[in-house]
TrEMBL record:
Keyword Protein biosynthesis: no
Compartments where found: Cell inner membrane; Periplasm
A Pfam short name: NMT1_2
Main location: membrane
InterPro entries in the cross-refs: ABC_SsuA_sub-bd, NrtA/CpmA_ABC-bd_dom
Family the entry assigns: Belongs to the bacterial solute-binding protein SsuA/TauA family.
Keyword Ion transport: no
Species of the source: Streptomyces althioticus subsp. attaecolombicae
Keyword line: Cell inner membrane, Cell membrane, Membrane, Signal, Transport
Domain of life: Bacteria
Name of the protein in question: ABC transporter substrate-binding protein
Amino acid sequence: MRQVRRLGAALVGLALCAALGACGYGSQRVGTTAKVMPTGAALSASEVRVGYFPNLTHATALVGVREGMIQKKLGGTKLSTATFNAGPTAIEALHAGSVDLAWVGPSPAVNGYTRLGGKGLRIVAGAASGGVKLVVDPEKIRTPAEVKGKRIASPQLGNTQDVALLHWIAEQGWKVDPLSGRGDVSVVRTDTKMTPNAYTSGSIDGAWVPEPTASLLVAQGARVLVEEADLWPDRRFVTTHLIVSQRFLDRHPDVVDAVVAGAVAANAWIAAEPERARRSVNEALRELTGKPLPAGIIESAWPSLTFTDDPLAATLEAQAAHATAAGLLDRPVLRGIYDLGPLNRVRKAAGLPPADDAGLGTP
């Protein structure tokens, strides 16, 4: 019976895995799904290049580009886009000047910031919170204690979910070598595009992964053991935020303000029109990857995500501390990683209070 269930799960995985190929790591694609063309006078730059992932946790960017919120704020300045499947790849593109702004997760932003001595980038707005889960094989793991001795996947050595998994393991009192992944739990670094097949083949017993991979695994018979939001105060922690090249911010603050204003408008539309937003995100995924997500997967994944302008700065500092405790990062100096001037100008114009940088803003 177990083999029959595995076969059924494998067939589900084969049917859906292509739709989730964008959840993996390591590639870049130039293109756009925007419906709106530049009109009117350009700002201080004739073009701005933004990067993001074709993934649910980047819905702010997917909606902001496809529905034209960002281009409308830019006026005659042309919006160009590039999509990535890896935070480190996006950071490299930002440092190389291939993109000017990018939506990325917290660990790549911290690594990129510290690597260049705090001179390369700034976080200018939040984007997403939540949407990360530990899902497991219910025939092997029924309680958190039974994770010990099992093989649990994370997307990439040192990425945001890898750090969270290592921190959770340490909280249980278990030991794992952070680089090799060997120890009381075997941490198996697996591209998320390969995780469904790894699960159905039995080579892993679970995974600490973002959506929609978590919901895909549930569709294959896994169950949610831990929702990461439950481990954070108020169930809020940064999953995705918007960063900018310091060079571009210094030269074109008006353009950065416009991109942030478009992102804020996108988040407001997502909150006001969740069904239309899900359809827009899925259509953007289809256009960018050639495959939409199955309706059941996106509907299962969506409720665990919150799209927010708040950068949740205090949780970034906590995540950096977790990476340091795990042995993946020297204790970073994060003062200056945020410049919330662009966001707070938008919020002030809307009659909203300023966002908090938790003391990590530019001096």
